Amino acid sequence: MTDNIEKLIGDVEKMLDGKAIKNRLSQIKIHSFRKFAEESELNFTFPLTVIVGKNGSGKTTVMKAIKLLSGREIPQDEFFETIIDDGGFQNADISYTLDGQVLHYKRLRGNEWGKEGKIPEKFSVTYIQTKTMVGAIDKSFLYDDIGKNTSRTQKVEYVIKQSKKLKQNPRRTSERKERHFLNGDAVEAINYILQGNIKSIEMVRHKYYSGTWGTSIIFNDGKQYSEYNAGSGEFVITSMVDQIQRISAESILLLDEPEVSLHPGAQKRLICYILEVIKKKKIQVIITTHSTSVVEKLPKAAIKSFRKIENDIIIIEEQVFFQNAFLELESDLVDKKHIIVEDNMAKKIIEKILRVEGLSELLQVEFYPGGASNIKQYTILTYSKTRVDNRFIILDGDQRKEEIPDFSKIPEIDKTEKYMKDVFKKAIGINADKIQWGIDANRKAGRTNAQQEIELILAYLKYYKDFVSFLPQNIPEDIIYDEARLKIIVGEDGFPDVSQEKDSKKKLKKIADTMGQDIGEIEYQLIYWFAKQKNSDYQYILEMLKAIIER
């Protein structure tokens, strides 16, 4: 197996584009359900979906709703109402799009739901909830009552006596015992995730402790030991992998907080393993998590953020960069000041200046794919909403538009919806209506919340004014382009005429192609020379970086 998550993601993206993998569940719509916004929508656009959010943000509720598609449960078994808890399901309606067809579960009255549509044939859902996993011995000690006022010593003696039955008739399954060995692929996966050296693993599900079903695991790494003397992570991962290895192709796998009992490195390898399984079995996987290690480096198509707004209303934000998900998880990883740029060349230039000036430990530069449009529509929106003060955006010079006014000098009566949208268009360069503000409204149904939208636009513009800067030239290649230096780097003989090329990027490509030289090496040499010369553009960027550090 590989730790190269970028390659695995690329492989899955290619399979998705080539329709070798498809999301059988493509959408869920939630209407009037607990504290979700009245019309909530969750779209599945990548074979791996990771739902992040704080406690109580509705992640497990959505997983339970998807679990209903297994056909083994009915809504009232998951979403029931009692005298002390009305459930919050008045007029509730959950709709799913499965293989292009729509299925509805609708609440009719207390603890009674109706169903419209059918679950497709050969539609399989596996739900794994790691926080409920406990080994047979711990289960006996913690939950099973083998006698009144039983002491710890008596419980231990009972387990020792009963455990002898686990080795009786080792090849047989009975009414009180089911057993099997994990195959080689499963053991290999477990060793990869945990970085272990286990040689064999036997799963035994039995009723030998107090007459209720429990799971014992017998590990062998040269010595034999049970799940009781293994780490809790070993038990969780073994139980999880055992189930995952046996699920059918083209099914749905639900993992509720799979990071339980796993250290960060194991969490990252678990995600790599999951991506490998997606490739092999062409399954759709949906995960809930509180872990930055799980969400790190995933594409924005895979990340859904469940966030509480005013009055604890839960909204679903899609197309979220993993760095933004860190904010919702209140991760310490966002304490360091970060600079986000729209292209890799800008990242290289700024990082070079930081190294030359000895400032690399104070600022971290990150390139967000998707260009300025994605940064404006998603990243800045998230930062302005969450009042982030350690994230700074540096855009290319061609993104500089009109200055944002000082709103403290604008009378409140003049800050109308039209005025704010006009300012937004002129300063940001895109229409405010293209932004998914996440307001408590439903534009499709004709319900708007103009005041809330004005406040969000105002917060966005204030963040943009305070935290967004621009490079001194239209594109980064303009900053480093030096034709005299280029002739020294590649030689003058055969140097092409680039006067007709529209910008420096195209000029560099033509020079590299004509001279038969690697464009990456040419760019490296130009950046080196730029940093050595320390011209006016260098000084402009340096002062911009120092201002960020001093804030």
Description:
- The chain has 551 residues and is of the alpha/beta class.
- The chain has three domains: 5-124 and 248-311, P-loop containing nucleotide triphosphate hydrolases (Rossmann fold); 133-243, no CATH class; 336-551, no CATH class.
- Helices cover 39% and strands 19% of the residues.
- The protein is built from 19 helices and 19 strands.
- The strands form four sheets. Strands 7-12-13-3-14-15 form a six-stranded mixed beta sheet, sandwiched between helices.
- Strand 10 (214-220) and strand 11 form a beta hairpin.
- It is globular.
Q: Which stretches of 5+ consecutive residues score pLDDT under 50?
A: none
Query: Helical percent range?
Result: 25-40%
Distance between the termini: 44 Å
Number of domains: 3
Shape: globular
Query: How many DSSP E strands?
Result: 19
Derived from helix and strand composition plus strand pairing, the structural class reads alpha/beta
Percent in strands: 15-25%
What is Rg? 29 Å
Give the strand line-up of the largest sheet.
Answer: 7-12-13-3-14-15
Mean of residue pLDDT values: 88
Largest sheet: 6 strands, mixed
Number of helices: 19
